[in-house]
Amino acid sequence: MNIIFIVLMLGIIVFVHEFGHFIFAKLNHIQVNEFSIGMGPAIMKFHRGDTEYSVRALPIGGYCLMEDNSDDPTNKKAFNNRPVLARLSVALAGPFFNFILAFILSIFVCHFTYIDPPTLTTVVENSAAEEAGIQEGDTITRLNNDRIYTFRELQLFTMVSDPTEPIEVEYERGGKRYTTTVKLKKDAETGSYLFGIIAQPQDSKGILDDLEFSLYEVRLQIKTTIYSVKMLISGKLGKDSLMGPVGIGNMMNTVIEDTKENSTKDTVVLNVLLSIVDFTMLISANLGVMNLLPLPALDGGRIMFILIEGISGKPVPREKVALVNAVGFALLMILMIFVFFNDIGNVLK
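Predicted structure:
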């Protein structure tokens, strides 16, 4: 059953991504030769207009195959012959739809679990926060001019920043805003640098809270992904932090099993579903960001070439685009193979 959930989760995320490309291709009068739900051998096919719609055997996403013949400038339905803004909107639509999916799923998570505003319920005695004048009931609003909307954003900030550097903290108390400087304290037992503050999660007060904190949740996941990419490039994160479908599936399986163990018979179904929804939200936001990276074979690579054309007023020569994409695709395949075996190694540990 866990395997079914995992396959469906990954399939839905990829399908929504491709559906975004499909909708915007249609809106911009770009011919879609085939739109497929699933991969592999076709179970069912039918034509409507100039598009073949298919349902395929493997429920692992889908694809949107657009007409891409730039050798014929008279074919106004070909992707490469459409205006720059039309092509840009189609390329951006896939990641954008992943963010929309993450937002919709976040609404359910916030409604049925909790929201976490950065309003402090505890300030540890003799902690760095207390020495800086921060009190229980204060709401943290900025850290070094970085706007904070949730307590987990504060935790993310302290994880990725230099803990030895002072932090300029803006907080709200009684409707007024104050600024102080916090110097984190090193814990003698763990060696970790601590703020000394706690903010207990709260129940949502209704749909407005659900919508507001769903936006904050998507924002947090986007920031987390961007920080992770930066740390991978800088070497602060090792190869074990890279995960492909196998690693994601293994992590989701762990999440499901842990949820089952920590739930009662009356709550296990709801808790498992919420865990799956939460994990799907996280991966969808992650996929949206990763696809925007300016790398060949990703949406970001296509967006990069379109932007170059828009700025320069002329398209990048097709043979150069093909060469860059071929090299990029080969490197991406090598990376995928590496990630696959890395995932297998982590699973077998």
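Summary: The chain has a mean pLDDT of 87.
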